[in-house]
Design a protein that fits this description.
Length: 291
């Protein structure tokens, strides 16, 4: 009787979940189908593999099979990933990004990537940083670009560029002069991004370092909304310095002893093999930082 790779997966799933029915639900199989795979393995090797109980657990023979099965399936996964690297990138690629790199960095990267890899349909999904990281861990997307470093052992982050954030006010405001003090800044209301965004975290960290606890008058979900509210006189905002050339209605404030810097970071899931399209996209992002 031939040995089924799928049967090995089923056996490991039984061990993980402790019952045939739970393994069936996880694998989308009926309980009899799961049982058939188990019996086929036991007949193939001539040993009982599980001790019947609640939960099920492995016999010594079952433990031996599980050890080898994990190694075999790991090698198969590595084989598939290695062979995929020899295939030209194609198909659909799901990329997640937080708002600021999605607005400022990803458009240029997307154009260069699509020009070089026309057979890849690039689907870029923009959310805040926390939502983007959650989507990556749930495998709703394959790679992510966010506005802060990640501190999670399940993830790998590569800084591809640094971004400077600057405080801004309405261009028409009398407060918009060449240089202001921290005391001047602390006395004014702030218009900030929503909680969960990397911009908000970077601003709060920079203000805390300067000894300022901001009086938040308004929280908004995009950089464009921040610029519009600040231009209308709602208070002080913080925007990427690279956007100011296109924001004539707001003006940069040079605040002594205050600087906001944050990275743009390419994030992947540790140990998860990337598709050829995702590897090519990652290489494009990393190359962007060296342009």
């Amino acid at each position: 009787m031939n040995l089924s790779v799928h049967g090995l997966r089923v056996f490991l799933c039984i061990l993980e979940h402790g019952s045939l029915s739970a393994a069936g639900r996880e694998l989308g199989m009926t309980q009899p189908a799961v049982s058939n795979h188990l019996h086929a393995l036991e007949e193939r090797f001539g040993v009982a593999l599980l001790v019947r109980g609640r939960p099920l657990w492995a016999t010594p023979g079952g433990e031996c099979l599980a050890e080898h099965a994990r190694r075999v399936l790991g090698e198969i996964s590595a084989l598939v990933a290695d062979m995929a690297r020899h295939v030209a990138p194609r198909g659909r690629l799901l990329v997640g990004t937080s708002s600021t790199p999605g607005e400022l960095l990803l458009p240029g990267i997307a154009v260069r990537f699509s020009t070089q890899y026309p057979d890849v349909a690039l689907d870029v999904r923009i959310a805040d940083t926390d939502e983007t990281i959650a989507a990556l861990l749930h495998r709703d997307i394959e790679v992510a670009v966010v506005g802060r470093e990640v501190d999670d052992p399940r993830l790998v982050g590569t800084i591809i560029e640094q971004d400077e954030l600057v405080p801004v006010v309405a261009a028409s405001a009398g407060f918009a002069r060449a240089e202001v003090s921290l005391a001047d800044l602390a006395a004014r209301p702030f218009v900030l991004r929503e909680r969960g965004s990397a911009t908000r975290r970077a601003v709060e960290k920079g203000l805390a370092t300067a000894g300022i606890e901001p009086r938040v008058a308004m929280e908004l979900g995009s950089n464009a909304a921040i610029a519009g509210a600040v231009a209308a006189g709602a208070g002080i905002g913080v925007l990427s310095a690279r956007t100011l050339a296109t924001q004539s209605a707001v003006k940069w404030l040079d605040v002594r002893c205050l600087k906001f810097l944050r990275p743009f970071v390419l994030v992947t899931e540790r140990g998860r093999p990337l598709s050829p399209a995702a590897e090519a996209f990652a290489a494009t992002c990393i190359g962007e930082g060296n342009v």
